[in-house]
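Reply to dn_fold:

You asked what the input looked like. This is it:
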Amino acid sequence: MGARGGVLVLAALLLPAGGGCVAGGRAEREGPASREIEQLFRADQTDRTPPADGRQLTQEEFLAVGARDLARLKRAREIYRLNLLASPRDFYHAAVILQHSWDSTTAADDHLLAHELAIIAFAGKVPGAGYLVAASEDRFLQDDLRRRQRFGTQYPPEPGLEAGEGITDSLRARFDVPSLAQLRSRK
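and this is what came back:
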C-alpha cells in the first residue's frame, strides 16, 4: 500500500464521532440523502440477484441492468460530490454502487473512490465493509491497473492476475475474506 493508502486508513480510523460513526455505541447520524443512497444500493443488489428460475439474463435484460447501473452511478457520484453521505452506512452503500462501475471512462476513479468510501464504512463498523475494502482494492488493481489481486476477491480471476500470497491469513480474517487455503481450493 502506498503512502496515500496508509493516510486514508489512518484518516478513517481517526474519523471524529461527530462524523456519524457507530463506534462506542453511538447511533449513526442519518443525512439528507441516507434514504436515497440506501434505495440506490438496494436496487443495485436486486439487479445482481440471479433470476429465481435459474436462467441467464437475456441480452435485453442485461442491457437494461447496464442502463440502470449508469443512472445509479451518476446519482451516487452526485450525492458524494454534494457531501451528502453522512453515516458510515451511507459510505458503504455508495461504495458498493461505485464498486460495480464498468464504464471505461470512469471505472478506475469509481473503483478507487469505492475503496476510499469502504474504508470509512469499515472504520464505522458497518457489516460487510471489511470485505468491500479488500474487494475494491482487488477490483482496482486487476481491472484498472492490470495488476495481480492481493486478496483474491475477484472470481474467477483473470489469467495471470490471481492473488499472490503477500496477504497473511490474519489480515484476511480482519477483512473477512477467505484464507489462503480457501482461496487455493477454489481453483
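The radius of gyration is 17 Å.
Hope that clears it up.
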